[in-house]
Design brief:
311 residues; alpha/beta; inorganic pyrophosphatase (n-terminal core); 2 domains; six-stranded mixed β-sheet
Length: 311
């Protein structure tokens, strides 16, 4: 059995679909981790024990990958160390100091398969900035997808993880494989989720406070909207960066720190991630973002670390 473990967002889902299409894979199981947590849980480890080959896509868990005991292809674009496990083939442009906007592009380049999914992964990860890339524009144009439609498709695909529906995230890969891209705009289960989520995001953003050009927002929601809130504050409202804190997310706390491209040259996000991890949190990220899930009594300590960089 081929096992694919992928991130829960559009980039992870499109990366999985691209891999399956590229390898003409028929017998596969795709799984995602507990949403918001950068680890393999018991369910994934049990599946790994039954698998013949593992693929880990857009999921920055080098520590977990080091422990696998079956042949593994680890494709990612996040900042991470080189893997020492001889069973693992690691494909990651960041190891050579290259910045790639989304994992879907890394998968597409590795296998030589380019389509709308490749572009949607980028739109999912960098938003409006994706349309500055000629390749993204051409891929979307070739399938008759407008800028507005691409953004809406990402919103719909992401509605599954934002609603904390792990089963639906995993099912989304098969939806992509079985439906023409444009038909997904009317895919009712996703449309209903997206409507409820939009209202929650707007409510959180309206409570943001400003400090030195950075936005700080505290809210409580069962939806995993924290990254969307931060993106809206930075990408749409123009803040230098945003710190979003969901103080009660299914009994846990979340912190998400996103900075603008300009600030990424000043703030060493890898350093911030390591400091947050040292608190015993589940944390990960890349050049411009950090996300963590922790016990509610640790969130203030995590926030204090991030606040040191808001100057």
């Amino acid at each position: 059995m081929n096992l694919i473990v992928h991130h829960w967002d559009t980039d992870g889902i499109t990366s999985a679909a691209l891999l399956i299409r590229a390898l003409k894979m028929e017998g596969f199981t795709n799984m995602t981790a507990p949403i918001g947590e950068f680890r393999f849980d018991g369910r994934i480890w049990e599946a790994i024990e039954r698998a013949e080959r593992l693929y880990v896509l857009d999921f920055n868990v080098p520590g977990e990958v080091e422990k696998v005991k079956i042949p593994t292809l680890f494709i990612d674009h996040h900042t991470q160390p080189r893997i020492g496990n001889s069973l693992v083939e690691q494909v990651n442009p960041s190891l050579e100091g290259e910045y790639w906007p989304a994992n879907s592009f890394v998968v597409s380049e590795h296998f030589g398969i380019w389509n709308a999914w490749s572009a949607l992964g980028v739109v999912g990860d960098v938003g409006e900035k994706a349309f500055e890339l000629e390749r993204v524009r051409k891929l979307l144009e070739s399938e008759g997808i407008s800028r507005k439609e691409a953004l809406r498709l990402v919103e719909l695909i992401d509605s599954n993880y934002i609603a904390m529906d792990r089963e639906a995230v995993e099912g989304a890969v098969k939806v992509l494989l079985n439906y023409p891209v444009m038909e997904l705009l009317e895919y009712e289960p996703w449309v209903k989720k997206a409507e409820a989520i939009k209202e929650a995001i707007e409510g959180a953003v309206s409570n943001a406070e400003e400090r030195n050009g950075f936005a700080i927002v505290h809210f409580e929601s069962p939806f995993n909207i924290i990254s969307k809130v931060a993106r809206k504050l930075v990408w749409e409202l123009g803040y230098r960066g945003a710190v979003a804190i969901n103080g009660n997310f299914h009994g846990k706390a979340q912190l998400y720190f996103r900075i603008s491209g300009e600030e990424a040259g000043r703030i060493n996000m890898a350093e911030v991630i390591e400091r947050i991890k040292s608190l015993g949190t589940n944390a990960g990220g890349k050049r411009e973002v950090l996300g963590c899930v922790c016990e509610r009594d640790k969130i203030e300590d995590a926030l204090k670390i991030v606040e040191e960089y808001l100057r």
